[in-house]
Write a sequence for this structure.
């Protein structure tokens, strides 16, 4: 099962609450996994919470956490306050309620999911960054993109879906999008939308995850490919201009 970003409310912490993990696990089949957004706390001296991570947890049917991905591209003023030591005395704070800043993760990573293959993760608007959505060292079989698009009005979700489709086509990887208010979707490795839940529509997508395509040229070269194309086009433009003279 794929649940959205912030599916586990801020008042609950999956890594620390065995009762919550057991409650969720009882709703899974013996071979099921739950991939859900949640918050992981970071502690300092005296076990005092000093920060947090916007994370995806992989929960097994036995209630154990099998893996975790931490969001790397955080939203300034939303997930953390830049230059806090300077701005906080001036009365500025995060736009989203909360006393602790989120800390960034290390970047694209893949986790092996027993029975399901290798998953890559991009939380919310992380997926808008071309060339930075999949691990090059451990290419995933699919990307999971949980999001909370409720912040972005009516026009944000279609734009976000379009960005996810571009990343799927660039990488040759299927993408699973899960959001609380839409648009949730299953996207094929060529960027086609296989199934979707419209904006502000409650429901469940029950489908088969397509297999990935062989690594595309962009998957191999990343943004270097774009630079090469730009250089070739620039060279052709110079040659054309000289011949016109």
């Amino acid at each position: 099962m794929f649940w959205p970003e912030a599916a586990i409310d801020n008042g609950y912490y999956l890594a620390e609450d065995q009762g919550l993990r057991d409650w969720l696990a009882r709703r899974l089949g013996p071979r099921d996994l739950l991939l859900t957004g949640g918050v992981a706390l970071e502690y300092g001296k005296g076990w005092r919470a000093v920060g947090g991570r916007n994370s995806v947890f992989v929960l097994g049917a036995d209630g154990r956490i099998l893996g975790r991905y931490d969001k790397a591209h955080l939203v300034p003023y939303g997930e953390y306050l830049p230059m806090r030591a300077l701005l906080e005395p001036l009365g500025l704070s995060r736009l989203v309620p909360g006393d602790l800043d989120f800390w960034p993760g290390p970047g694209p990573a893949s986790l092996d999911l027993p029975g399901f293959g290798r998953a890559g993760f991009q939380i919310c608007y992380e997926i808008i960054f071309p060339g930075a959505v999949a691990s090059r060292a451990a290419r995933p079989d699919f990307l999971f993109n949980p999001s909370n698009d409720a912040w972005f009005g009516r026009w944000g979700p279609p734009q976000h879906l379009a960005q996810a489709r571009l990343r799927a086509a660039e990488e040759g990887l299927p993408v699973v999008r899960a959001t609380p208010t839409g648009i949730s979707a299953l996207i094929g490795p060529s960027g086609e939308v296989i199934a979707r839940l419209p904006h502000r529509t409650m429901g469940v997508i029950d489908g088969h995850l397509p297999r990935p395509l062989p690594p595309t040229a962009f998957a191999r070269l990343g943004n270097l490919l774009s630079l090469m194309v730009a250089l070739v086009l620039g060279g052709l433009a110079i040659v054309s201009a000289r011949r016109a003279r």
Observations:
- The mean pLDDT is 91.
- The two ends are 63 Å apart (CA to CA).
- Residues 223-244 form the longest helix (22 residues).
